[in-house]
What does this fold into?
Amino acid sequence: MSPPDVLIIGAGLAGLTCARHLHRAGIATQLLEASNDIGGRIRSDNLGGYTLDRGFQVLLTAYPEAQRQLDYDRLNLHSFYNGALIRFDGRFHRMADPFRHLLDATGTILSPIGTFKDKFRVARLRTDLVEGTLRDLFAREEMTTDSALRERYHFSDNIIDRFFRPFFGGIFFDKELRTSSRMFDFVFRMFALGSEALPATGMQAIPRQIAAALPDKVIRLNTLVAAVDHTTVHLENEEPLSVAAVVIATEAPVASRLLGVEASVGHNSTTCLYYAADTLPEEDPILILNGEGEGPINNVNLLSNVVPSYAPEDKALLSVTLIGDPEIPDDTLESQVRRQLAEWFGPEVGTWRHLTTYRIAYALPDQAPPFLARRERPPRRRPGLYVCGDHLATASINGALRSGRCAAEAVLEDLNV
It folds into this structure.
């Protein structure tokens, strides 16, 4: 392979996307990845025939950048039910999207999750957020999601604590809902316009699809970058590499270290436990939320109901998502989670087999205001040095894909291509 013109540090979604755009423009590019595989935070493992994504993740099919860059048919997407089962007062209550599940609308209206006024406010909010452009959406005053739900949209504590907190708190890994209201509005719009889905072979199918467009040997795995000096990259135990341009496509803490600046963005954590079972307690491909606010569980995900290929034939797979990273041993944590699962689903939980626990310290950048004071931050630090990643845009698959494309466009502009 000819010497590269551009070095990209990090083979997550942003780095892979940047590399694909540069390759299509005829720019010789090399990706340097510190770990043993591509994908960054979007990785999937196979354990005894079970597909385990590293932390519960979904693709929102309405993401505009994902629609632009991904081949959904090749991903073979499987969608969740548009709604949730909410555990409250010792029972499960179905909250359905009435625009998609008209037959379930009556049960939703009569459920104790929110007041009657709340149900109509949800419908009005949906209509409000799908109108206009994304530019209009991001021009609204930024506040926390919690403040927006109370002060802008006038929801009651009832529906905030029983639905919005576990649902969006589980998306943002933010139980207090400090996340920017602009992010809430954006994600709500994406749910309203599309579905949440999983690829048949796991979430890592997304970065693998992007990487498939790159020539052999473009990606170097297990390659740790020690420092970046303008357009020179210093590797551990190797000679430095000097190129026309360097793109730092890592998580925010690593990017700050390589740039030699103080980290300006915090992060949120999550913990995910996987269980194998003979059968699942519910037949629908539906998300189960903790609307009681007690115990470690935030949500339960009936994965093999959504994608049967996530589990071996005649077996089932579910995951449990916690917000944060509890400072207790894995076995203690698993015991606490299993106890709460048994309270919800009964003695059959005793037959479920714990497969593994993922503790993900850096799950998402902290998106509290003023995270989205600007919809995205420019990738160019100076000609020859660029940064991309979801910490510069909406912290999402969409943000990572868009940031990678914008970085490539900035590189091409400076190289006069």
In short: The mean pLDDT is 95.
